[in-house]
TrEMBL record:
TM spans (from-to): none
Protein name: SsuA/THI5-like domain-containing protein
Domain of life the protein comes from: Bacteria
Name of one Pfam family that matches: NMT1
Organism encoding this protein: Desulfovibrio porci
InterPro entries, alphabetized: SsuA/THI5
Domain named SsuA/THI5-like: residues: 169-276
Length: 369
């Protein structure tokens, strides 16, 4: 394996690398903008029945989208009179920031970007996808001194270092929690805002001292020899992905939102009881079809172990339908605190969100269904 560059280069060296990488990133993003202008194709449209009502779901090709895909695979959406159409994007921040252009009805993404849409009062949080904390992490090259250093030494090593990370995402939340554990603040390091696939390619090319990734990009990192320094669970985080509904759509089409959730939760129940020998090939096909990714059987089972799905009963508790929902609200308050630390939320905005008025159980199927 190629010897990694000196782990923590001087400021001039890091700045030169950062400027070069930023030019490459801008070019890549220009291509993505073209996609947002109309080149995305809704999946599943060819199988929708003529009488079914299309429900457009924007998501990432990740675990929280798996139940929606499986519900369509089993035609449970058609049984509810809807046809779920998937639009897959690279990050939740991109999904939220471009919700008008993308024209989605529902979405599944991390709580960190979803909170920004809730601040704009654009969406309701109508369900919980997964807890993904164990699947999101900070990675370094195998020769990095981070793996042998104690926290104090790791903090000294990282001060002034460069980290590749998509800002405003769950990976960013982990990064800040990890830095705090080392006694550092965000401005003690250089963070390059980079999507996971781009970040991994740049890091493997020698840029940066650490990289923040989520699965399934993290599996490619491990295949390429990188090692996990810490994950969200290690940092004491719970990182919920949320199912969010565009407010005007949900207010005008509550039955369709409930129909989607009924199929989604039916899929959750089926997947939870599915043996590994059936789950692994199914999940591998899901990733191949939605994200163009190929993972091994072992990686598919690791994905299962690293994500928690929530049954209908648990959803009603989390969203406050049967109790006060303090668990989910506590998780989301941690997200609000993260946004305050980054400056994305003012104290006034954080206060508005603290009440979490747009987290609602009213679209969930009733317990008797």
């Amino acid at each position: 394996m190629r010897e990694p560059p000196r782990p923590f280069g001087d400021g001039a060296e890091n700045l030169t690398r950062m400027l070069t990488m930023n030019r490459l990133i801008r070019a890549m993003r220009a291509i993505r903008v073209l996609a947002l202008c109309g080149l995305f194709v809704w999946a599943f449209a060819d199988t929708a029945g003529a009488a079914a009502t299309a429900v457009r779901l924007a998501c990432l090709g990740e675990f929280e989208s798996f139940p929606a895909w499986y519900a369509h695979e089993r035609q449970w959406d058609a049984a509810e009179g809807i046809a779920v159409e998937l639009k897959v994007l690279p990050t939740g921040r991109l999904l939220v920031d471009n919700m008008r252009a993308l024209d989605w009805n529902l979405a599944a993404c991390g709580g960190v970007p979803a909170m920004l849409a809730m601040l704009r009062k654009d969406v309701y949080a109508v369900g919980v996808g997964t807890d993904e904390a164990a699947a999101n992490g900070i990675y370094a090259r195998p020769g990095s001194p981070l793996f042998t250093a104690d926290k104090a030494e790791a903090g000294r090593l990282m001060r002034g270092g460069m980290i590749l990370c998509p800002l405003g995402t769950s990976a960013h939340q982990i990064l800040l929690a990890w830095l705090e554990g080392l006694g550092l603040r965000e401005d003690d390091v250089v963070i390059v805002d980079t999507k996971p696939e781009e970040a991994l390619a740049a890091f493997l090319g020698g840029m940066g001292d650490a990289v923040a990734l989520w699965s399934p990009a993290a599996y490619e990192a491990r295949r390429r020899g990188l090692r996990e320094v810490a994950n969200g669970k290690d940092c004491g985080l719970v990182q919920p992905t949320l199912i969010i509904a565009e407010r005007r759509y949900a207010d005008g089409h509550p039955q369709e939102v409930t129909a989607f959730l009924r199929g989604y939760l039916q899929a959750v129940a089926a997947l939870e009881s599915m043996p590994d020998r059936e789950f692994a090939p199914l999940y591998r096909r899901f990733l191949k079809e939605t994200a163009g990714r190929e993972i091994s059987v072992e990686e598919a089972l690791a994905e299962r172990a690293g994500h928690t799905l929530f049954t209908a009963e648990r959803q009603r508790v989390l969203l406050g339908g049967e109790r006060d929902g303090e668990a989910l609200r506590g998780w989301l308050r941690n997200v609000i605190a993260f946004h305050q630390k980054t400056g994305a939320l003012s104290s006034r905005e954080a206060g508005e969100l603290e009440r979490l008025p747009l987290v609602t159980p009213r679209f969930l199927p009733s317990g008797t269904e």
